[in-house]
Amino acid sequence: MDYLKRHMLASVPALLVISRYLVTQLDGMEENELQKVLRPEAMTERRGVSSAGDDPSNVLTSSLSVGEDLGLFDSERSGRGRRVWKLRDGIREEVGRIPPADSRVFRSLVLRLLSSRALEEVRAGNKPSDVALALTWILLRDPLEPLSMNWDKGPETAFEKAGMRNAVENVEQWGAFRRWVRSLGIATVAQVGRQEAYFLVDPTRALLDVLDRLPQQEPAEQWFRELFEILPVLGHPILVSALPEGSAKPQAIPASLALAAQKLRRRGLLNLAPSADASAAAVLRIGGQSWRIGEVRVAEVAE
Fold first, then answer.
1. 254-291 per-position pLDDT tens digit
2. Domain that holds residue 125
3. Is 240 within a domain?
4. Phi, psi for residue 73 in degrees, rounded to 5
């Protein structure tokens, strides 16, 4: 399913609002009742959204459809022929544990669902969502060469040259995609002067959020393979193979992920033990620097 083209108004904050409400509704709720109950400001993100009906009811409808595709929600027809929505059984417990004032757990959950859904689609011979495809591509780019926030000042050309216009094809979709990536904790914005702003892709937070799901100590190549199974958009070879040929420089470990690992190392959360044996090492490259890593140890997981 294409989220940016068919459900541009769907958003991670809206998915969170819906999920937190549905966790209390064990029997589910009809969509028209959800429309009446869930109309908070969090459901609308107006920063650069297309004006084509960007009101809370349309945000909710789009977000329900995307949430169902991701595996967050299930729907069925009631006796009156109306759609009844509920959280999937396997998701309910995890959503129920989300602290009221901290959405990091949910953000990580959505990123994992988005990633695994994309990998599932590619393995089945289908096209992954445009958000997952664009996210995989942008995470393969050099993090030291960020794109402008302005579609006309670099991003349009970059997507065109990479053959990625099938994922993000215009300024409206670029804005929606940026909101997805920022909501998932994978990018920030850097303001340069009064007019220029750049989109900085950085998966450090995403990596930190799944450290407790990874082995505490393991050979580096295997450790990163297990990471790619948890978050395929970080560089799983099968998902990368779905990108247009020549759209990105092939790397066993993308530079953005290498940067994230090094940042966590500097914070004392990862130990990246060097290896003298090039044949049994994972190579991290950032710019002109490279490191051969033989083993990864998770030193500590921040709460």
1. 999 999 999 999 999 999 999 877 677 899 999 889 99
2. 109-203
3. no
4. -120, 155
